[in-house]
Structure formats: structure tokens, C-alpha cells
Amino acid sequence: MPQYVGAVDQGTTSTRFMIFDHSGNVVSVHQLEHGQIYPQPGWVEHDAREIWARTQKVMAGALEKAGLAPADLAAIGVTNQRETTVVWNRNTGEPYYNAIVWQDTRTDKICNDLAAQGGQDRFRAKTGLPLATYFSGPKIKWLLDNAPGVRAAAQRGDALFGNMDTWIIWNLTGGPDGGAHVTDVTNASRTMLMNLKTLDWDEEMLATLGVPRSMLPEIRPSSDPDIYGRWQGVAISGDLGDQQAATVGQTCFEPGEAKNTYGTGCFMLMNTGERIVPSQSGLLTTLGYKFGDAPAVYALEGSIAIAGALVQWLRDNLRFFDFSHHIEDYARSVSDSGGIYIVPAFSGLYAPYWQSDARGVIVGLTRYINKNHISRAALEATAYQTREVLEAMEKDSGVALKALKVDGGMVHNELLMQFQADILDVPVVRPQVAETTALGAAYAAGLAVGYWGGLDDLRANWQVDKVWRPQMDAMTRSKLYAGWLKAVQRSMHWVEE
Question: For the chain, how far is it from start to end, CA to CA, in angstroms?
């Protein structure tokens, strides 16, 4: 009987393979970064072939570190950066063009043209999404219209589309030699091509964006007892977009339970059960998960484009420090941000504004400011953005959050977590396994093959590591947040046609 479950976690800046035991503990992990390609302002690309090569290396590396073989794994789940779009040749496995990353804004004109014929929310009732550069559908249209040979290949039936989950699963299960061309409901819900009610590709959306149905993967459950395929004999049976995977990893299985993931971006999801809740406050209505034949579970999501990416920008572009974790030392050396705010609208503003013409600003600068203040303001920006999303979520759902479950790389930054609790005025709770994205994918895969018996098994694994409680007085909280809202207004409408 295999003792473990594995998970491929294909993220925006790196790919890793994690192996978990039955208690949800990490047995082994191997992680590798991949290149970020910026051909021109606002464009962000990845080399899908590099990501597949990294995936193979991290899987081999994690197994080797633990002294395990594939046969020791009961199943493998996949989780991924959502919306990142790749189109490849089904016969050769070669991508026609670099993957267009979720942060990329080149589809701005496509989205504006579509919005001119019915507004930014013209498809929201069907897809749960506003018209925005974030989603895959407009990216596929851009590739069909602009990438050499893609439209002709699509018409011949040679071109396959996938987000990174589909690309990885297709390659793991054989690639050109019979690879499974599949996705799950959570990833499909981020394309702007799936109908939330039918959980199938929507003919009107396909016609509007000019996307041939033959390009699209089969939509499957997030945890699938019928399995998608096999890698070296191991069942590939779980697939979730990264934020939905973290929701599963945090065991947010009841309506009203929510989590916030701090990664490259920052994403808060609240479980709304089997109910589709239309947002009136700038959030996304999305799929939470679908386990086997059970009804689909929906969620409200607040998406923030830039969180950890702002720290990377200070590290890589401005050379503030050599390692991202050093930001906490700089930020702690000052008592506050010196009155400055950073609004990191590098890819426009996501929730709750959806302003693709916004750009990043630093406001309130004086001669007093040094890199320590800028470092602190960068951390605080993530906490302020999270409060905006939380307020929108409480408004839409009618549920006042009593505590916020958090996960992702930035939750080890104690200064940020305390400031987050202070600015929200609710406790912030970190679980013992903070890398819940990979854990959620492992849970989905393991449930499918009976490695875990049910949701109660998963709930029993969830343990608190640390709680941060609010310490800030109400007047300070209110004043700081008012300054943030003023700074956000300064970032808007920067890019002109």
C-alpha cells in the first residue's frame, strides 16, 4: 500500500513537487524557479517548455531526497498559476508561442472593445467574471489573432489550449502519445469561456471570442475517481487552480469559511456552498471545487495582482536586498512607513476596482524617506489591499469574518501578519502547514483514490501554528486606511489610449 501522496505546484515564479503523509505533513519538497520574460511594458510571458523541464526535475528531486520511488505514491495532484495561457501542437508538443501570464495586460484593447458593446459586466451572469486582461479567453483570442500559424493550426485541429494544469497533465500522461487533454472546473472557470451553471464551455462565449471548441480541454471534477491518466503508473487524480487548492488545503469546506493566500499575488476566497453568489462589490464568482459526483461548490474571490511580486521588484529591479526575507529586517528598523504608501498597480488594479489603466505609484515622499520606509510600505500595501477585498466580501456575502486563515510564502513575515491583524481588526491564523496550495492538490488526488476517507479526515489534519491579534487603536487604523484609499485614487487612469 503506497504511503504518500504527491503534488505538483506550478506557480508564477517557480515549480515544486511536494510529498505528504496521511497526516498532511511534508515529507519532501524540491523547488526550482523559472524565467520571467518581459518583451515590452505590460507584457509578461513564460517559456512553457522550461516549466515542463522544471516539473520533471522537481518530481525526481523530491522523490530522491526522500529515498522514495513513484510506486510509493498513492496518487498525484496538480495545482497551478491560473489564467496563464499556452497553445501548443498536439502532434509535436511544441508551444506555438510563449505562455501569456495572468499578469499580462496586452489584451486590454480586446477587453475594451468587448466592453464597448455591453459594459465590463456583460458576461458576468454567465461566467462570474468582469471583462479584464486577467482571464484566459481574451489571451487565446490574442494568440489566434497575432501568433504566427495558431489560427490555421486551430482550424486544422492541431492546436490545443490549456492553462498550466492542462499543459502539465497532458505532458505527464504521455504528451503527443495519448496525453490527457483535461482541466478541472476551477481552472475552466477562469477562462471566461465556461458557464457557471452548466460547468461546460459556453457556445456564446466561444463565438464572441472566436475560439474553436476543438482547442479546449475536457472539463473534469477537481478530485476525479476516474483519474485523468497515469505517470509512471501513479494515478493523476487531482487538479485545482492554486487559490482553490489553498482553500481545500485550509479545509474551508463550510459556507462562510475563508482563506487568504499571500504569494506573487494575494487571493482571498470564501466558500459560498452550492450557491452561485453574484458580486455587487467587484469580486469574482468562481468555482471552489468539485469532488467526484458531489455537487460543485462555489466561492467569492478577491484577486490582488501584486503582493510578493512587489518584494521581488524591490529585490531584483531596485537591488534593495539579496533575499526576499531580508525585507522584514529593513521594515522593522523603522516604526512606521514615514507617511508613504505604495500602490503596486503594475498590472492595473484588480479587485475590487478592475481598472486596467492604473499603474503603480509611491505617494507621500519627503527627504526623510529611506529604503527602510519603502520596505515597510511595500509590506503594508499587501495588508491594505487585503482589507479592501475583505470589506467587499463581507458586503457581498453578508458574513462578518471572525478570523482570517492565511497561507503562502509571505505568512512567515511576522511584521506583515501583525499589521494585517491590526488593519483588519480580526485575528489572523496561520496553520502548521502554511504551504496549503500543494496540500490541497494532494488532498484532491488522495480523496479520489481513497487514500483519505472523506472531508473529516482532512479537517482532523488542520492545526493552528500561530495567531496574531489586533493591537492597533481604532483611530490609528482609520487614519492609515483613509490614507491608503487616497493613494489608490492617485494610481488610476494613468494609461491613456
Answer: 61
pLDDT digits (tens, 9 = 90+) for 30-85: 999 999 999 998 899 999 999 999 999 999 999 999 999 999 999 999 999 999 99
Of the candidates 57, 53, 65, 80, the one whose C-alpha atom is nearest the C-alpha of residue 26 is 65
Residue 131 CA: distances (Å) to CA of 215, 268, 494: 21, 20, 19
Distance between CA atoms of residues 407 and 387, nearest Å: 16
Instruction: Count CA atoms closer than 13 A to 120's CA, side-chain side.
Output: 12
Q: How many residues does the chain have?
A: 497
Percent of the chain with pLDDT over 90: 82
**Residue whose C-alpha is closest to residue 290's, from 200, 216, 217:** 200
The residue among 303, 424, 299, 423 whose CA lies nearest residue 353 is: 303
Q: What is the three-class DSSP state of 242? A: helix
- The continuous run of DSSP H or E covering 447 comes out as helix 436-448
Name which of 348, 334, 271, 337 is nearest 306 in CA terms.
348
Beta strand pairing status for 229-231 and 234-241? antiparallel
Do residues 447 and 407 lie in contact, with contact meaning Cβ atoms separated by under 8 Å?
Answer: no
